[in-house]
Amino acid sequence: MPLVHTPHPDLPPPITNVGVIGWLRQNLFSSWINTFWTLLASYLIYLTIPPLINWAIIDANWIGDSRASCDANQSGACWVFIAARFDQFMYGFYPESEYWRVNLAAILLLAMMTPLFLERFHYKAWLAAAILFVYPVVAYTLFAGDVFGLMDVETSRWGGLMLTLVLSGVGIVASLPIGIVLALGRRSNMPIVKSLSIVFIELWRGVPLITVLFMASVMLPLFLPEGTHLDKLLRAMIGIVLFQSAYMAEVVRGGLQAIPRGQYEAAQALGLSYWKSMGLIILPQALKLVIPGIVNTFIALFKDTTLVLIIGLFDLLAMIQAGFVDAKWLGFAIEGYVVAALIYWIFCFSMSRYSQSLEKKLNTGHAR
User: Fold this and answer.
1) Which stretch of 6-10, 48-52, 89-93, 228-232 has the lowest confidence by average pLDDT?
2) Measuring CA to CA, how many Å separate 130 from each of 103, 134, 178, 307, 312?
3) DSSP at 66
4) Considering only Cβ atoms within 10 Å of each terminal Cβ, which end of the chain, N or C, has fewer?
């Protein structure tokens, strides 16, 4: 009778190759050089993180309403300064009694945008159109007032995070369509359209934004007819939009060049016109390819709004700087810059993460 060989069951992998220990060996201690850098990084973290936690949390001053609350204990951060000036950081010089108008506009925007993230919502196109064309009118009416019994609030009193979001929001929404048109114009077969697009793009890309803002605020009124007045905030918005649209045009042009020639030929074979082929076939693919570049441009725009300080507009960072140079709060610049950095990081990181999720959602492959 022949012997029947019964195989033994597979043994589990060694404990040193799986779980936390396996991950540490594979990622942090896989070689002597990785071990060295891991130990060095751990030592640097030991030197910096505990003192930072002590300064920012454990030894910090959280309660009070004046500088005296922090002078008694100067070993930690003075978050009392942030709490005392928080309203100015958010709203600038906007009247305190009218804060509800800004809050209402923010709540309305969030309420309108929430359905756009729901898969089963069937009216996204109409809602998006309302956000782009109706909401700005409603928001400006609430912010500026002087109608429906609302108190008139000059744009010179807008500031803080409110002004930062207004400038970046208008710049983001307006620069994308203008950039798409410029990118199509630069790739056009019509010499005049192509030349004008190239001149516009290269001119605005060759000038620093700080110069654009200065020209828009100081020089532009000199070229307007006598008696014509453009609001300073409006001039800044126009300068930011034109500047950013030139960069957006180059990002979109990169996506258009990445589309295989066969896609253009397929659209022509279907008998589609130029605008239909671009709107239905080419641009959706091109914009999907350049989502990282578009979001990177948006993030840069959001941070560049700090430059409006040179023309007398007080955005978030400018309001924080104005806060800690106040004689009542001298010496608390670090706390102000930490809060500014945290707010900017939250917004920029949120845009980055959303763009990554959008990339995954739209990833249908680009094999040629």
Assistant:
1) 6-10
2) 19, 5, 19, 30, 32
3) S
4) N
What percent of the chain is modeled with pLDDT above 70? 93
The model's pLDDT over 175-205, given as tens digits with 9 standing for 90+, comes to 999 999 999 999 888 889 899 999 999 999 8
Based on its alpha-carbon atoms, the radius of gyration of the chain, rounded to whole angstroms, reads: 27
CB-based burial of residue 4 (10 Å sphere; 0-12 exposed, 13-18 middle, 19+ buried)? Answer: exposed
Residue type at position 154: E
Q: Which CATH architecture has domain 160-324?
A: Orthogonal Bundle (1.10)
3-state secondary structure 2-62: CCCCCCCCCCCCCHHHCHHHHHHHHHCCCCHHHHHHHHHHHHHHHHHHHHHHHHHHHCCEC
Measured at the CA of 88, the angle between CA 83 and CA 93, to 5 degrees, comes to: 160
Which pLDDT does position 367 carry in this prediction? 47
Query: Residue 161 and residue 316: Cα distance in Å, rounded?
Result: 5
Query: Which string of DSSP letters, residue by residue, matches 196-225?
Result: HHHHHHHHHHTS-HHHHHHIIIIIHHHHSP
Q: Give the amino acid at 115.
A: P
Could you please report the per-residue DSSP string of 87-150? HHHHHBT--GGGHHHHHHHHHHHHHHHGGGG-TT-S-HHHHHHHHHHTHHHHHHHHHH--STTP
Is the confidence at residue 264, as pLDDT, over 90?
no
Rounded (5°) CA angle 262-264-269: 90
* Full-model pTM: 0.83
Calculate the CA 88 to chain-centre distance. Answer: 21
As a whole number of angstroms, the distance between CA 294 and CA 298 comes to 6
pLDDT at 301 over 70: yes
Report whether 339 contacts 79 (CB < 8 A).
Answer: no
Residue with tokens 């605005």: 204
Residues 136, 109: Cα–Cα separation, whole Å: 10
